[in-house]
């Protein structure tokens, strides 16, 4: 996507290249890798909808027919060789493949909120985080510095600080953070936030256990797990109510919102990374709309920019 296209299609006038350059600056350029969530593992999945989604949306994967999925678990770092333990937040990106071949994606992480409210503050915060690389700030000082300039970051940074090392990619709770809008056959619109809840519960490691893990322990664990059983996640839609902001990924909705069980994702096997896989979180299907969240809209162009660079081996 060129600069003009990305500027006209998205609400911010910031070019995606500027965001991707800022991200690259955190740990340097690693040719061929995603510019964020660089280390990861792809798997084959099957999504079995519960049927309860039909009341809210016409989306093909949320009716009654099961659909194939490509899944990628990842660590959040920009550095592909960083050990699993050193990137606290983990990602789960799911590409549903509808019967007619159309794809739609849901991308989540293990914290419920994001640290920036707008693309502009995202870029400023990432520039600030560069001071970790130059050694002028340690991790704790950096968090304090960010919160003192960007109070919107507080909830996300606290959530990151509370993270414990996961025992398995399959035993993490993932949040897709942004609001989306589901649209049913009558045209009724319902704002939702999606979550992936692990069927076997959340399990973390003690510091002693964590200290004994090899760099890529999470991928090793998945390989062993798949010999005996699949990893299973429940897809939940949290229903937004009157007054719940749909344009602010830095704040969670109240905890008492109604939750709908949309179905289960069964992940059974590690597969080689499909070279052309792009998990754009704005790739939707009939029965789904983007919310007015400016970060969500901006992600599309930045993911395309990162994809373009890595596909060209840059
Ligand atoms: C302005 C905000 C954001 C920017 C600029 C950004 C940027 C990026 C970029 C450049 C990539 C690599 C894309 C690729 O090469 O395919 C990426 C991947 C990823 N991001 Fe973001 N991101 C943002 C917000 C978020 C949020 C809010 C979440 C969580 C909901 C998230 C979760 C992920 C995950 C899980 C991946 C890995 C996707 C995969 O496995 O293919 N990002 N991000």
Structure explained in plain terms:
With 314 residues, the protein is of the alpha+beta class. It has a single domain (3-16, 32-114, 164-311), classed as Catalase HpII,  Chain A, domain 1, CATH 2.40.180.10. Helix content is 29%, strand content 24%. It has helices at residues 3-9, 16-27, 119-134, 139-149, 154-162, 207-211, 217-228, 294-311; strands at residues 40-49, 67-75, 90-97, 103-109, 174-175, 180-183, 189-198, 231-239, 259-271, 288-290. Strands 1, 2, 3, 4, 5, 6, 7, 8, 9 and 10 form a 10-stranded antiparallel β-sheet that branches. A hairpin with a 5-residue loop joins β3 (90-97) and β4. α2 (16-27) packs parallel to α3, α2 packs across α8 and α3 (119-134) runs antiparallel to α4 (139-149). Residues 1-11 have low confidence and may be disordered. Protoporphyrin IX containing FE is lined by residues 19-20, 23, 34-37, 40, 72, 74, 91, 93, 107-109, 114, 119, 122, 176-177, 249, 278-279, 295, 298-299, 302-303, 306-307, 310. GO terms for molecular function: peroxidase activity. Residues 15-312 form the Catalase core domain. Its EC number is 1.11.1.-. Its cofactor is heme.
Which properties best describe this structure?
oxidoreductase; Catalase HpII,  Chain A, domain 1; binds protoporphyrin IX containing FE; ten-stranded antiparallel β-sheet; disordered N terminus; alpha+beta; 8 helices; 10 strands; Catalase-related peroxidase
Brief digest:
It is an enzyme of class 1 (oxidoreductase). This protein has helices at residues 3-9, 16-27, 119-134, 139-149, 154-162, 207-211, 217-228, 294-311, and strands spanning 40-49, 67-75, 90-97, 103-109, 174-175, 180-183, 189-198, 231-239, 259-271, 288-290.
